[in-house]
Amino acid sequence: MRLSQIKLAGFKSFVDPTNISLPGQLVGIVGPNGCGKSNVIDALRWVLGESRASALRGESMQDVIFNGSGNRKAVSRASVELVFDNSLGKVGGQWASYAEISIKRALQRDGDSNYYINNQNVRRKDITDIFLGTGVGARAYAIIEQGMISRIIEAKPEELRVFLEEAAGVSKYRDRRRETELRLADTRVNLSRVSDILLELDKQLTHLGEQAEVAKVYRELEARRETTQRLLWLLNKQEAEARRERYVQQVEKTRNELEAEIAKLREVESKLEGSRSEHFALSDAVHAKQGDLYATNAEVARLEQQIAFLNEQRNRLSQQIQNGERQIAQQQTQLKGLRSLQTHWLEQQQDAAVRVSVSEERAENEAQYLPQAEEAARLAQEKHNAMQREQLLIQQQMQLAETQRGHIQSNQQQLETRRARLILERDNLPRPDTEALTHEQHNYAAMQIEHEAQQAQLATLQQQQPQADAARRDARIAAQDLERQLGHSEARLNALKQLQAQLDNDKDLKAWLVERGLNDAPRLWQSIRIEQGWEDALEAVLRERINALPLDRLDDTAEWKQPPGKVALFDTAHVGMGAASSRTDMKPLANLVQVLDDKAAPVLQDWLHDVYAVDDLQTAMAQRGNLAAGVWLVTPQGHLLSAHSVLFHAPDSQVHGILARQREIELLQEESELRASVLTHGKEAAAQAEAAYQEIESRIAGLRSSAAALQQQLHNNQLQILKLTQANERTEERSTQIAQEMEELSLRSAEAQQQLEEIAQTMAEQRERLEQQQIECDQARNQASAQEAALREVRERAQHAQRELQEAHFFAKTCTEKLTDLGLNIEHQAATLHEQESALLASQQELATLSEGDAHVRLQGVLEQRQVQEQLLAEARNTLEHATLNLNQLEQARMSCEQKLNPLREKVSELTLKEQEARLHFEQWTEQLQGIEEEPLLPLLEGAKIGGLQTELSKLAVEINALGAVNLAALDELQSAQERKSYLDAQAKDLNEAISTLEDAIRRIDKESRDLLMATYEEVNRHLGELFPILFGGGEARLVLTGEEILDSGVQVMAHPPGKKNASIHLLSGGEKALTAIALVFSLFQLNPAPFCVLDEVDAPLDDTNTERLCKLIQKMSDKTQFVYISHNKITMEMAQQLVGVTMQERGVSKVVSVDIEEAMRMRDASAAPVAA
How far apart are the C-alpha atoms of 80 and 45, rounded to whole Å? Predict the structure, then answer.
């Protein structure tokens, strides 16, 4: 695979698209300093995947994009493309079938970077994979640029091993090993996670097993509760139906009584309706007479208003006649004035017609002279403009010459400045500092020792880290177990407290207690404690009284309403002890009870008097015959025995278990407090373990940071040593360059002086022409000014005549408009005068027709009619009052009947509501039983009572509540957890097998890498031993491993030039170091020849003898490897088969010029042949 073309566009100084063809095996790149030769090497390194801006001599990756110059704008994209000849198919993989392979990289200024292979977008890794093991890459040994020679020979042993691995082709193995290690680490992390999950799952399975047993018992109890509930629903349904039928009969009876009373009411209402009709008729008669009176009053008011209106109208018409006469006189005066103005403007119109005729004749005479004057002025101005253009051309030529002279003088000043700067630089060139170099070497050794000590300390901490992590994890798990146990205890405690709180859930009873201020009073069971095991005995004796409430005055209860439920009260006002027990040979139950409140002691003595505790039922049976009347025996199970009876205890009360639950609540509270304390200590221990682990982590991070900083200092120290050793070489080289530049500056200064003299002579000739042209231009300007003045005079006369014509036309138009307006005003005033005279005549006629005598006669007749109507209205009102009195009496009788109906209606409504309530209950129970077969339940109802079924439900509820929080999904969760555990067990097995497989793969990769690297090491050592004497003319060199394991060991170069026994490689001169590095690189090439090799001025420190040896070796190796090199050495240039010249004719922009050396030689021979003939 051979590099055939390099294509650059926008990369550094190569702003224009540039194509560098590399047809030969030896290609030299030449050009002056600073023209951009090394940018070609940077382009090769960049396109092969270099991601460090410092390696490309920049601060950021955007620095590779052309950033503009004095004449060019910055571009936004840089691209480099390498074209390889793959006709031999040395590139494997998917690209093996291509005869030509193109590798391209493009970068946008916004940071978007893309890689392409044959115009297909690929990853950076795909490009590096192509060249793995070939020595070609961003950091491989095939690209050797300025300063890299010293870095290779003085590299750390670990860094030098990378070149050996690249030559051996171990890079791909190392990448595979690193990927395998990452997979192995991920697999171990996954296995650790699976193990933790399995540990938690085992605990969860144990817990779920317990919950599943509780869930099974819960389901059995729930089935019994459901059956009992159905029986209760069915019994309630039957009773609701019986109540509904009873209420239906009562409603029917009450409705019959109500209908009899309604018949009586209808009779009264009939009489009331007749009386009301009569009353309505009389009322209507009163309203009619009153309406007639209102109409008569309205007619009186209307006639009075008519008389007043006639008087007002007479006064108005008189005033209107006077105003009309005054306005007619004014209109006649205005009409006379308008006709006088009309005569005046007719005379003005005749004068305006005469002025227009005279002005038109004068304007035509003045316009005849204007075209001749304009043409004469135009010709004079064109002549003047031509003279000015010629004068301006001469001035521009003189300005251009002046600019050239200034530019040349500026260049001379720059040359002098450059000369002074070069002299100053030559005088200030640094001198080698041997003392500083020795000091830096001592510092390097000391820092190396400190770095090794830090690495040892870091290894110790890393060994302690897993132990601290395990301790932290154990402490955290222990704290979590304690927290989970505390949570179970608190959940059980909350469940018991809820059961205790449910005793007061009866809303009606609670409201009854709140009304009497007893809701917050303590219950009796809260004030007593009994020995463990005797709770059922005390509950059997006290039953509902165990939930009794204290009261100061029991006498007040006689006036209380019936409570909605069972309530027990005891007196606290009279505190005293009750009677002593009558039997001294038995154990009173009261002796087993501890009273926490003294106010409850008397009532307990009363209720537990003559109640004795026996250990079992057999003992009680034996002692029953000796008992007196009123004496009871009780067993721990709650069975009661007297002399003539036995009561077997069953938990049928709502308060059953209240004492046992209270005892358990107190124990759980103590246990929770103890576990909370233990949990606090456990969390503190976990926090301490976490802090210890974090401290180790912090120390490791600090040591890593310190080691990295020290490593950077070591690297900086190496760079400083390298800089000091190269300073002398750069000083000598720079001195030679300064001398050459100063000689070139002298030549350029002489050329500039000659150009200045030529420009001065040209400017003198142009100045004489400019003076002559100025005289002619002034004459043309004077003539143009005279013609322009004559033109202005003609234009002014023509404009004055035109203005007079316009004024005459305007005045004539004004006269016409004035006459038109006056004619319209005269017509309007005449019409207005005629209208006012007509209105005056109409007002005089209307005034004559007004009369008020008829209105006074009609008013007198209407007043007499109103007096008669008032007398008739008074008689009708008296008759209406008698009818109203009779109507009120009948209304009272009706109200009396209705009052008798209301109780009956309320009774019907109440019975109807009860019947509806019974029906709703029936429907409710029927709905509850919907979907349930009733026939199988009917046999179970024989002898069943609602109270018994409710007691059974309460008992089952107590047993269910006693189970606490039940996880009903525990069985399903248990099965799911077992399936998950099986899956995780299989997964853990797979992970263990994967770990074994990955570890075997790593061992296999290490063995193959070790064998291949050792063979390469021996082969490279052999080639180095052969090439070193060729380049040095003798001496010896070899590679030495710094450790026993070649995979981790570093590589050092031991070199002894002829006649020298150096103790250190650092004591070699710059040229010897360069030759040693070249020998090493070429030894690697002998083992694994790279497709091409790039050398950047590696011959700079060599003398002519060593340069000739190097050239011979390169020519010999060019049979297998293509060489592209940059050089200023003539001997090296002569070796090239093709020269690529890089120039910078435009500042900041590089250009390429190619030269085929063999073709040039043939052309020289061909041109020399005819001369020889």
Answer: 10
Burial class of residue 345 (count of CB atoms within 10 Å of its CB; 0-12, 13-18, 19+): middle
**Cα–Cα distance measured from residue 15 to residue 453, given in angstroms and rounded to the nearest whole number:** 52
2-142+1091-1172: CATH architecture: 3-Layer(aba) Sandwich (3.40)
pLDDT of 395 over the 90 cut: no
- Under DSSP, the state recorded for 441 is H
Residue ranges per structural domain of the chain: 2-142+1091-1172, 534-635, 998-1089
What is the distance between the alpha carbons of residues 486 and 473, in angstroms, rounded to a whole number? Answer: 20
Q: Token digits for 803?
A: 């203005």
**Separation of alpha carbons 1031 and 547, rounded Å:** 114
Q: Of all residues in the chain, what percent are helix, strand and coil, respectively (each to 5)?
A: 70, 10, 20
Query: Does 998-1089 match 2-142+1091-1172 at the fold level?
Result: yes
- Best CA proximity match to 655, nearest among 784, 752, 524, 758: 524
Neighbouring C-beta atoms of residue 896, cutoff 10 Å = 12
CA angle 128, 130, 136 (to 5 degrees): 65
pLDDT digits (tens, 9 = 90+) for 786-831: 878 887 887 787 777 777 777 777 777 777 877 787 777 777 777 7
Radius of gyration of the chain (CA): 65
Give residue 574's pLDDT.
59
Q: Are 570 and 527 in contact (CB under 8 A)?
A: no
Query: Architecture of domain 998-1089 in CATH?
Result: 3-Layer(aba) Sandwich (3.40)
Residues 61 and 53: beta-carbon distance below 8 Å: yes
CA torsion angle for 419, 423, 425, 427 (degrees, to 10)?
180
Tell me how far apart the terminal alpha carbons of the chain are, to the nearest angstrom. Answer: 46
Angle 434-501/658-849 helices, nearest 10 degrees? 90
pLDDT of residue 106: 93
Please give the Cα distance from 605 to 544 (Å, whole number).
Answer: 17
Longest CA span, the chain: 175
Q: Are 679 and 479 in contact (CB under 8 A)?
A: yes
Q: Which of 679, 214, 270 is nearest to 486 (CA)?
A: 679
Burial code of 911-935, b = ≥16 C-beta within 10 A, e = fewer?
bbebbeebbebbeebeebbeeeeee
